[in-house]
Structure formats: structure tokens, C-alpha cells
Amino acid sequence: GESVGLHLPTLSVQEGDNSIINCAYSNSASDYFIWYKQESGKGPQFIIDIRSNMDKRQGQRVTVLLNKTVKHLSLQIAATQPGDSAVYFCAELNNNDMRFGAGTRLTVKP
Amino acid sequence: NAGVTQTPKFRVLKTGQSMTLLCAQDMNHEYMYWYRQDPGMGLRLIHYSVGEGTTAKGEVPDGYNVSRLKKQNFLLGLESAAPSQTSVYFCASSYPEYTQYFGPGTRLTVL
Asked: Given CA atoms B40, A48, A97, A74 in this order, what sign does their dihedral have?
């Protein structure tokens, strides 16, 4: 989920398990959604995107689900690995206005 | 193909000093952006540009100025730095309506 402030939501999973990170977006007119991964000390890195005319999109080990009815976006990571440990941001785009969530910190336990 | 690069990586300023952050991209993207990221928070848009010679305000533009004299470069200026501008600054670029690609960030501390 999303939060504002100093404390990010956190998700801790065991290596090899599947991870699900959720995001509630704010603008029903947003037509493009992106998930980014940010490792410590680095810039955000694109993972996967989805347009509003779709409800599911799959990549390599990742799947994004979009539920426009409740303005909800999720990122599923299959067989989570230690290298997946990072902060994950969702972003929504409406015209040229992109807004980011505060992020969720994923920790993968070996 | 270096993608998006930022200069400098780190900087410490005293209150009232000025500085310019440089962003360069080699992907021929039309759009460029400057964001700031504060601890535990998402990215907030400062200014952006939809093409050479054009700039526009984002969510938190006060205290910053920008210029886009060349398509590949986007400069962020702080005329009189304040402690509230201590942050990590990210530049990004994109084609219109597509994914933004980010630089590695500049960590700025204002004392």
C-alpha cells in the first residue's frame, strides 16, 4: 500500500516465495501506470507498465494487475530473490502529469 | 549509450549559496524532468520540459529554476539554497506519454 511520511510500508518474504505489492492510485483519469524499483543509493528503475485499457500484463517474473473500479494496482513478483530487495513505487500518468506513490520496501529473507 | 547522467553526485552548500545541477540524456527524448525525493517519500516533480526551449512548473517549483537550451540537457538551479532543499534530486527523460528513465541522483545537503 501507499503512505505519506517517514515510515514506508514494508513487506518481508522468504526467498522463493511470491510477493504482492499493492498501490492505490488517486486519479480515475490516469491512463498509464508504471512500477519502478529503487535500490539503495540508485535512481528508480523501470519494471513494468500497463495502460488503462488493460487489466493484466506480464513480464519476466513480474505481473501487474489493474483494477480501475477501485483504483488499485498491484505488482506480483514470482519466486522472489534476494536481488529483488528494494523499494517499489507505483506511478500514474495523466497527460504529462506523473504522480508517484511513497513506495513499499520489500525485504527478501534467505 | 549512457542513458541519463547527472552531475555532480554529491554536493554540500551553505544557506544562501547558489548552484546548478546538470542532467544529460543521450536517448533523444523530448521530455525531461527534475524530481526531489525526501526520506520515506515518493518523488515530487519540481519542473519539467516538453522540448528544447520550453519549461513548466511541477508540484514543488518554489526556490528552483530550470533551463533547457539543448534537447539533451536540462539544468536545475538553486539561486539561494535553504536547508529545506536538502534532498536527493533525480532527473528523468522520456518520450511523450511513455516511461520515464531516471538518472542516478544528486545528493544535496544545505547547511
From this structure: negative
